[in-house]
Amino acid sequence: MAKNEAQMDLTQGPIARKLLLFSLPVLYGNVLQSLNGTVNSIWVGKFLGESAFAATSNANNVMFLMLSSIFGIGMASTIMIGQSIGAGDTAQAKRVVGASALFFFTLSLVVGILGVLLSPQILQWMHTPADAMDMANAYLRIIFMSMPFMFCYNMIMTILRGAGDSKTPFRFLVLSIILDIALNPLLIFGWGPIPALGISGSALATGISQLVALVAILVSLYRKKYFLRITREDRHLLRFDGAIIGSLVKKGVPMGLQMIVVSTSSLAMINLVNRFGSEATAAYGAAIQLSSYIQMPAMAIGGAVSSFAAQNVGAGRWDRVHRVTGVGVMYNVLMTGVLVCLIYLFNRSALSLFLPEGQAIEIGMRINLLTLWSFIIFGITFVVSGVVRSTGAVMFPLLITFLALWCVRIPLSYYLADSYGLDAVWWSFPVGFTLGSLLSVAYYFWGNWKKASMLTGGVQKA
């Protein structure tokens, strides 16, 4: 099987070094994505006001919910591709690419259309502050119109990572972020013949940058004759393959539901925070921006161990699967711990990037004090779950997430908020993260996840 220079065989060689090399482009990409969101939030928060910042905070939570609705399909296809590559079955990998691409695109259209139609109702359900409602709706509708570009672009990146290539996705991610950062002030404030679009300009900049990156990465892959590209001879693979689609739905829906559980819990949290006014909402939005940086190592390593483990599961290298878990947890604790310490050292300065001096910054500092350290625990869950899902074991991680969030964290917040105020909301983070981590580790050691499979006969059992 021919591979390009950016790909790695994840079934051979030193695990610690290869996992780090594979993780770093993913981590850098996460850093740049969060930096992009941060820069855009600064433009909105500093120049359009707290109401506009509260609008984007609400709208971005809804966008995450919609992205989550088809996240599982992309993750399931990534795992199947990784297992196929690990087993040396390129034909099977291309079969997965063809069927999942068509299915994924169809779902993205459905999500985008529903989002445009229902965005006002969703924002009302969230109790979006009245002064932010019109701006949030305008922003969100443009984002939904851009969903097909976003989903297709992100799916191509996950396919490449499943095949062992994390460098190519990073290069085109840099392109999209540079475009987004450059277009934001241009479209928000206008210049020459370009009208000032305000908050809608920020959403439009995101959509344009995703479309350009999608076209660019497709052109590059076909020029290089990437081994998983769909050629004219492979057009028959662009169909609703019953076996592939069945596995995508069976395995992808629980993974998508897991993300929906996370995103709906975020909506429930911001719904609760909204009741305390725009200052609390703005502070929470700023704290979430910072916590996104804290989560980046866990997300990068979790994604890397999933691709890493999938190839080794396909190759029957279970000794390497278990070593990947240990190395991944170690990297997470070290990297996340360093970032937590840095934010604690520069707490007020970091929040002041998003917020004017005042009560909102004081609330944000309290949020960080009570929640940031618990993201180290969250990272352990993310890494362990990434390995478990690489076999096709998807139901128990979903159950763990539901228990930790909707059976503990959300009820705890709502029940105690009236008596103890916002501190009850912030303390629910470490409580939920700790429960999820304990359950995930217990399932890893004593569960039957190694007996799961993505496709019948497609996985070698331990």
UniProtKB/TrEMBL annotation:
It is found in: Cell membrane. It is a multi-pass membrane protein. This is MATE family efflux transporter. It comes from Paenibacillus chitinolyticus. One of its GO terms (cellular component) is plasma membrane. The chain crosses the membrane at residues 20-43, 63-85, 97-118, 138-160, 172-191, 197-222, 327-347, 367-387, 394-412, 424-446. InterPro entries: MATE_fam, MdtK-like, Membrane_Transporter-Flippase. One of its GO terms (molecular function) is xenobiotic transmembrane transporter activity. It holds the Pfam family MatE. Keywords: Cell membrane, Membrane, Transmembrane, Transmembrane helix, Transport. It comes from the Bacteria.
